[in-house]
Design a protein that fits this description.
Order of helices and strands: HHEEHEHEHEEEHEHEHEHEHE
Distance between the termini: 47 Å
Low-confidence stretches: 259-273
Strand content: 15-25%
Strand order of the largest sheet: 11-10-9-7-8-12
Number of helices: 10
Oligomer: single chain
Length: 273
């Protein structure tokens, strides 16, 4: 919007042309079927994410490629094998890159990088089966230009596995933590009881029998004795990542300038569920 206004003041656009561009920035209609909210980043600091599940593979790929062509990046979640094939084909045809995040992806124009913003988000998982949901959150964080660091396989079945990586992550200085867990979903409450930063619980549909579709993990997190733990819906990595971005970006902007930022990395994931 600022770019359009600057061009209007410079005489590069007429009033009618500026109005048309501002309308397009807010909502762009694509093939009469989907409205891409290309102005969301400017309004909320969060990108639109295409949900592939429930869409034809070619349709979800077309939407992600259109977003990348318009904004430099297009995010898509819940990709199945057919969705991946369609996305790879359409991105290659358009000359775009695909960055993979387990069952999610960022489609990028060559050379595009999100504008860096202050703020750090730490992500932890109880087991390796929780990685797809956590990686979905990481995709959103990195797409918003914040630093992310992920540590996996720290579940309470072996509590000793948690303490070292959590201490290291806390020393890194995250503004918020996202903790993904299936089964009994205890890990977010344990972490929230040990640290002084906001913790977002991400229940995952991993487990056996009754409650194994994530209901047990969700209810455990909602009933946690650790005050201040907030919880998103089952498998909602996008929602957890978006909430983390809003928290971390504000906290990072309010903090004294940090020293040289650490590179985002994925923590090692040892054997686990």
């Amino acid at each position: 919007m600022r770019s359009v206004l600057r061009r209007l003041l410079a005489g590069e656009l007429s009033e009618a042309e500026a109005e048309a561009e501002l309308r397009r920035v807010q909502l762009e209609e694509l093939a009469g079927r989907a409205r891409l909210d290309v102005g969301r980043g400017g309004r909320r600091g969060l990108p639109e994410v295409v949900l592939a599940s429930g869409k034809l593979p070619e349709e979800s790929a077309r939407l992600a490629v259109a977003l990348a062509g318009e904004l430099g990046q297009g995010l898509v979640s819940r990709l199945g094998p057919d969705h991946w094939r369609a996305l790879d084909a359409q991105a290659a045809e358009a000359g775009l890159e695909v960055r993979r995040y387990h069952s999610a992806a960022a489609v990028l124009r060559p050379g595009f990088a999100p504008e860096r913003r202050p703020g750090r988000v730490g992500l932890l998982t109880a087991g390796t089966s929780d990685l797809p949901a956590a990686d979905e959150a990481r995709m959103v964080v990195e797409a918003c230009g914040l630093e992310a660091r992920l540590e996996a396989d720290l579940g309470v079945a072996g509590l000793h596995r948690l303490l070292g990586p959590l201490a290291e992550l806390h020393a890194w200085g995250p503004d918020v933590l996202v903790v993904a867990a299936g089964m009994d979903g205890v890990l977010p409450g344990v972490v929230a009881g040990l640290v002084d930063v906001p913790v977002i619980g991400l229940p995952v549909s991993v487990g056996y029998g009754a409650g194994g579709a994530g209901e047990a993990a969700l209810l455990t997190m909602l009933q946690s004795c650790s005050t201040g733990l907030v919880v998103v819906n089952i498998d909602n990595g996008v929602g957890a990542g978006a909430a983390a971005v809003l928290i971390a970006a504000r906290a990072g902007a309010a903090s004294p300038r940090r020293s040289r930022p650490a590179r985002a990395r994925r923590g090692s994931a040892g054997p686990g569920r």
